Amino acid sequence: MSKRDIDIATDDGTAKAGLFTPDHGTGTNPGVVLYMDIFGPRPGLDRMGERLADNGFVVLVPDLFYRFGPYSFDPGTAFDDPDTAARMKGMMKDTPVDVVEKDTKAYLQALADNGANGKVGAVGYCMGGQHALTAAAAYPERVGAAASFHGGGLVTDAGTSPHKRAGEMKGAIYIGTAGEDKSCPPEHSATLAKSLREAGVNYMLENYVGMAHGWAVPDHGVYDEAGAERHWRRLVSFFDEVLK
């Protein structure tokens, strides 16, 4: 696996991203956009990009908060400081779904320009889960598989809510929810499953019992190794089956 830091031109500026490529390309390495959680790009997400690349994918980890300039958040302490927590939440609020959806067009092109073949996968964590599902709805001819883990904002009143866009999705969908997660309570899972099923989407929704919001991300305070490994088995087999 090798990593390169690249710049991606968007309609609003230049997004920085990490690009992870397999050491031994087969000529049929699918691309994956990995949508960050609220803490942004960092070594913890690099490790996740590396692991996907080691499994034969060309992985792009873009900085969704590039409009705000340089920043750095420590997942272990960021929410302990009120000012830091407010800044993160403000950046997330000021990077709405439709803005990331527009940026995703450039992310998909960057994957194509860097050797990704065929349909693309999307995976997101925390706020990134919503963006991964949005990518499946917004770019159905490009995104063949999308996965959300402990995603937030999957069922809202907004027109951009993924459950309202199920009819636009043509790819396969995987949703892994935390057993206890205020950002995706049981009623949201039920609404999302109903919308996907009625739209005829090929989907799986799985509840990770005992896991908390953020369990799959290695530097998160609630990281759970057993639960994270289960998530990796599901994610890699899902992308292998659909994209390869």
Automatic annotation (TrEMBL):
Keywords annotated in UniProt: Hydrolase
Cited InterPro entries: AB_hydrolase_fold, Dienelactn_hydro, Dienelactone_hydrolase-like
GO MF terms, alphabetically ordered: hydrolase activity
SUPFAM superfamilies: alpha/beta-Hydrolases
Cell membrane in keyword set: no
Gene3D superfamilies hit by this protein: alpha/beta hydrolase (3.40.50.1820)
Start and end residues of each Dienelactone hydrolase domain: 18-242
Name the record gives this protein: Dienelactone hydrolase family protein
Source organism of this protein record: Pararhizobium mangrovi
